[in-house]
Design a protein that fits this description.
With 272 residues, the chain is mainly beta. The protein contains one helix and 13 strands. Strand 12 and strand 13 form a beta hairpin.
């Protein structure tokens, strides 16, 4: 296997991490009743002066499952990013569809690489299932096709809320194959990362200047590829830092370690 192949394998995994915040259980988003539909008739009860009995208080409505403080989940929303590092590129991240329990996302790179995956939502906590659990997730380009399943996972990718000082951790085991120039290689990635919300700070990217929550994660990645019956592996110790803006999403990611430094910055976005 060439150095370029190994390098591309690592970069693809780093890209997956760049889209994630690191996970943990978190306090759900604030509960609020949904607004009335435009065509809904609202009827007020008549007030009877002689009746002092109070009407029972209705239970508060549960928040939408995908309502998240730092990641707007809206069908048709798009974010354009610039990726700098071992393989510079640009890509557009899109929320393709949203249902009551999750959503589908897509990333299209200028270089021809594409990625699509599913997320599960639980009371505002978001869990990335790409590579998904129980079905194939993929990253593809002209010469490389990566197909993985998540065989083990814990926690959430992005908690419902983030407050300064919050700490959490996440583990993922991904197993599957990589097809490189027509040759299929079994592959396995194990990732563990411990994260902390460091607080709000100003960050400037091409899309503008934002007050963003800075999240730092210590990442350990064990990557293995089987070639001709022999397994070749490597361990990476990295630091990933993400900047998230309320009601906007991720505006910047910085991943450092072992010469595979990557920077992802927001260029433009549109949230319907």
């Amino acid at each position: 296997m060439t150095n370029r192949t190994i390098r591309l394998q690592i970069v693809l995994v780093l890209f997956t991490l760049a889209l994630q915040a690191c996970s943990a259980a978190s306090t759900p988003a604030s509960e609020a009743a949904p607004p009335a539909e435009a065509n809904e008739t609202v009827t007020e009860a008549a007030v009877l002066p002689t009746d002092t009995t109070e009407a029972p208080t209705a239970a508060p409505a549960q928040p939408a499952a995908c309502d998240n403080q730092y990641m707007p989940v809206v069908a048709g929303a798009t974010w354009s990013y610039k990726l700098s590092g071992p393989v510079p590129d640009t890509y557009v991240h899109t929320v393709l569809a949203v249902n009551e329990n999750g959503f589908t996302e897509q990333d299209l790179f200028a270089s021809g690489v594409s990625r699509q995956g599913e997320w599960v939502c639980e009371k505002g906590n978001l869990l990335a299932m790409n590579p998904p659990s129980g079905s194939s997730g993929s990253v593809s380009s002209e010469d490389v096709q990566v197909d993985f399943k998540t065989t083990e996972k814990s926690g959430y990718t992005l908690p419902a809320t983030l407050a300064t000082g919050d700490t959490w951790s996440q583990t993922l085991t991904l197993e599957g194959t990589q097809t490189i120039s027509g040759t299929v290689y079994p592959a396995r990635n194990q990732m563990t990362y411990d994260c902390k919300a460091l607080g709000i700070e100003s960050v400037t990217v091409e899309a503008g200047t934002f007050d963003a929550m800075r999240v730092e994660c210590k990442i350990v990645m064990n990557i293995s590829i089987t070639v001709a019956g022999s397994e070749t592996g490597t361990t990476l110790n990295l630091t990933g830092t993400n900047w998230y803006v309320e009601n906007t999403g991720m505006v910047k990611n910085l991943t450092t370690g072992l010469g595979f430094d990557t920077v992802t910055e927001l260029v433009a976005y549109n949230i319907p």
